[in-house]
Amino acid sequence: MRSMLIVATLGSAVALPVAAQQASDVLEPEIAVALPDAFSGLSEPARAAWAAREAGQPVQAERWMVAAANPMAVEVGAEVLRAGGSAADAMVAVQAVLGLVEPQSSGLGGGAFLVWYDAATGEVTTLDGRETAPMAATPRLFQTEEGEPLPFWDAVVGGLSVGTPGTPALMEAAHRRWGQANWADLLAPAIRLAEMGFAVSPRLAGQIAGDEERLTRYPATAAYFWPDGAPLEVGALRRNPDYAETLRILAAEGAAGFYRGPVAEDIVAAVRSAEGNPGLLSLDDLARYRVVERPPVCIDYRGAEVCGMGPPSSGAITIAQILGKLAQFDLPAMDPDAPDTWRLIGDATRLAFADRGRYIADSDFVPVPVQGMTAPGYLASRAELLGRDDALPEVAPGLPEFDHALMRASDTDPERPATSHISIVDAAGNALSMTTTIESGFGARLFVRGFLLNNELTDFSFRSHADGWPIANRAEPGKRPRSSMSPTIVLRDGAPVVVTGSPGGAPIISYTANSLIAHLDWGLDVQTAIDRPHLVNAFGTYILEEGTAAEALAEPLEAMGFTVRLGARTSGLQMIAIGPDGLSGGADRRREGIALGE
Predict the structure, then answer these.
(1) Catalytic-labelled residue, pool 419, 435, 436, 528
(2) Confidence of residue 407 (pLDDT cuts 50, 70, 90)
(3) Which pTM value belongs to this model?
(4) Between the N and C ends of the chain, which has fewer C-beta atoms within 10 Å?
(5) Residue 121 falls in the annotated catalytic set
């Protein structure tokens, strides 16, 4: 009989193999295995999933699985899948609950990218639900009268940073194409939870307490998150009747009830009347919003097909570039913890981000050389730069094949580490990967009808030109800002084997790529791949996750010529692997999610 480890979770006990304890050492900071009081009402399967995650053990299932950033949202998605709903149905229910219990990261006031694998056709489809700039926006949207960029937070808080939300339209578009359950029924759990109240989680409470000045600037936002002049505390019961009413409108009228009528009017009023920083969003901007189907970006990586979202997402192209360069090296034979391994990965990432900064933006506004940037010959030539023993002294964009002359400037404007991710596989074999966001934590800090509005427009470059050349990712009317969100589905022999993605700003690309390397190249199970320490080098400084084994690589990497800094890395990977023995799921212990399946 195998030895077992008993993990207590508020009165229950879950049996796990002792090997799980060894895996839990990968992420070194001590993490309590007790379920937070905010989640004390979870079902026994959800409690078991939490315990498995804390022990570094993947969750196993035979038919379906859902992984998302909050256990309450995951349980709702599980109920949909258990009743025979599709992955698209489950996403609608999960997103509606996330917008209530994790409002700082995503919601109706934001946008999302969705990657879908259809089991019936074998096709991969990507839907762009990214926010759009108001038609009144100009390339100087975030500049002073003298043409200088505004300080970041001066641009974020208020109405100026708010783009036209895309999430409600994306939820409806996915449901119309792939849904099976009744639309209104999928919103009902979130409505009930908003009316009855939910317990504030540790992560939400901590972020509320840490953002006092910005969250209390506008009365409606302050009244919800800082009632009576004090922040919501862990475990506090928070009701949101306004959110329930908004969802009722969506249930009865579909997304049209959001983009026209009283909800749209209130959104525009909040944006345009934001004291000190009014915005440009109009009723016409909301009425004209559309979800766009875009071609998926896929690359062959050691016999697997890694597919994701193309422009305006930079995620799939940049991941394709990282993996395409690394494919020239025998990474599976390299030590996962060796400095030279991370020299290779770090500089491959730097080179990819150099191309990203120059070439990638909304392809409806600027030509993006997708095929040239992901061509095997181009990536092999870029990989030749990595054949050295030390760090590249500098990196510059390459010259991918393009169908006409191209002159543009580079930019390195970062994205903030907020956002959320959902991975789902249903019983029919359909797979969904969706990364969803309101940009920085709490977005623009404008609270309307029970949800927060995004600050997505600050993902545009604040400069319109550099060195006399236009910047691809500058603001323009109706344009969608570049994003690092990287919802990803990996196929082998035409069938999905991994569904993954992460929040976390610009490092999303590294979180996703590095966890894929850990799983595909080094054979680590999904939870162990997620738990590995983060090492991220996008813009020249190698950031090593503090408090983890990555700190031991600081001196060797510095000796190679890298600039190194320790820092927190707030990923939120949700990863599902699909194999002959069923489904295996993992959720990032750096946040509050779980994977749950049957």
Answers:
(1) 419
(2) low
(3) 0.93
(4) N
(5) no
